[in-house]
Amino acid sequence: MASGSFSGELIVIGKIRRAIGLDGKCVVETFGITLNYLKPPANIWLGKSESSVSDCTLSKIQKQSDRVVCTFEGVDNREQAEGLRGYYLYVERKTLPELPDNEYYHFELKGMSVFSDSDENNRTGIVQEVYNYPTIDAIEVKRADNSTLLIPLGVDSVVRIDRVSGKIIVRRSFIEELM
User: pTM value?
Assistant: First the structure.
């Protein structure tokens, strides 16, 4: 890894959880679908925070049944891989491919306004965080009274996500069940 400079916004796409094996492989917790779109070798950034990153080449991505295993250029043994534990993987926003209308990156959802399908003029809240659970993704919505709702991003709960207008429309019946 070498320190470098980037131009633009960095997007966190995963976190190195642990080393696996003896040859420098790392188990990576993915944040959203972005890692699926990278084609190794891929230029990425690694760091404990966005303000202290180094450029790196992601040389291999292996999707296993319950995890993603990555190999990085210059990381050839377990000790080096262990040294990366806790590091975040970043990409420059401008390098991400455009997604089809029915797909989205997690970072695009943060800050979006959430509305009920029965009243699209009365905001339910604002997306504070996006969680990537093993069975479904979910958004944490902060309401005007500072309470929060955790809404799964599934067909039973979400009517549509409009990236252009910055709105997420949720079924009223689902919101009522949460309250």
Answer: 0.69
